[in-house]
Amino acid sequence: MNKPQPVAHSHDDIIYPGAIPFVLAHLACFAVIWTGANPIDIWMAVSLYWIRIWGITAGYHRYFSHKTYSTSRWFQAFLAFVGGSSAQKGALWWASTHRIHHKYSDTIYDVHSPRQHGFWFAHFGWIFTKQTQERDYSNIKDLTKYPELVWLDKHQYMPAVVVAIATYLIGGWSGLVVGFFISTVATWHGTFMINSLAHVHGKQRFVTGDDSRNNWLLALLTLGEGWHNNHHYYQSCARNGFRWYEIDITYYSILLLEKLGIVWDVKQPSPEVLRGDRRLPKPIADRAKEIYDALSETVGSAALKGKEALNTATSRWDEFSELGKASVQLAMQDLSHRFDEAAESAAQKTREVVQHASEAVDQAAEKAKAAIEDAAEALDPNKPAYEN
Ligand SMILES: [Zn+2]
Ligand SMILES: [Zn+2]
User: pLDDT tens digits for 204-246?
Assistant: First the structure.
């Protein structure tokens, strides 16, 4: 992975045109007022919600981002397609940004941290920032080696379009609005809540240094992803619910796929983790969190100041170089003006000198002529030697 982008991003970095399809998809849900909904539409919406949430949790998250189990190339492509049908961009983009999230959880380098950028920014604002739209896949070389995954990532909305067309063919306009748009928007917010709510509300069993939480309601809505503190503590295992009562449907589905021979090498948390409660005594945990918060704030504000200073320096430099250009231009104009003046006055002087010289020559010539005439007259042989 290249150097992380300092101070991830701010609200100013959001590229708004990129959010237009996102807003339109939300608006499309309101078309249900005109189309209505019949039982088939509702059935499609509910099943497509669960299928696609599963595609995200079992595919995009536990397989592509964390590689918590192994599978065949065919099933891998199938997972990329099902995850892709939820219109959350391609598996490669998703895994790449998610790995950044775990590497820098809740620090200034995190792509979506409620602590750093506020709840709504962590919920969906971050998707539309310049930083996350520029794809840097250096942290997912294990995935980019498969051309079919790269192709699906390039045609990231193709699976969703296929699903949209299918809902229209089955249920007409109400099928499209309810079966596709409403369930897609619900799938989005179900997923996004893990980035926002699961870093704000819930219990922290493990001290992970970040704000990840275990939230049972979110776990039910997202097929097990709500056990997010467990997951941040032990990301490399396929299981997020560590206790029998921590319902984790995605994990059960992975076990079933393992029984069927479709997936293998399912990674498990260590017995100590499953058994133990690694919570620090509360006063120590609180103090650690305080120190962490203070540090993170200091680093964050220093980095922000640095960014501001850089911006100021850049704009000053621009101003300065503009000024520089302008003054060079002025100086050149002045110089050329002065040169013209000097040349003009030199020419004038030369003209005067030439004028004087020519006058002096004329006068000298006059005088010489007169002298010659005088001399000639004096030497005239016809002239009497002495005149009376
Ligand atoms: Zn997280
Ligand atoms: Zn994760």
Answer: 988 888 999 999 999 999 999 999 999 999 999 999 999 999 9
For residue 170, being part of any structural domain is answered with yes
Please report where in the chains the tokens 């005149």 appear, as a residue: 387
Q: Tell me, in angstroms, the distance from the centre of ligand 1 to residue 160's CA.
A: 25
Q: What range defines the domain where residue 66 resides? A: 11-279
Is 173 inside a domain boundary?
yes
The number of residues in the chain equals: 388
* Residue at 156 is within a domain: yes
DSSP 237: S
Contacts of 219 (CB under 8 A, 6+ apart): 225, 226, 227, 240, 241, 246, 247, 248
Q: Residue 331 pLDDT more than 50?
A: yes
Residue 121 is assigned to a structural domain of this protein: yes
Report CA(377)–ligand 1 centroid distance (Å).
Answer: 127
- pTM exceeds cut of 0.90: no
Distance of CA 214 from the midpoint of ligand 2 (Å): 13
Domain count, the chain: 1
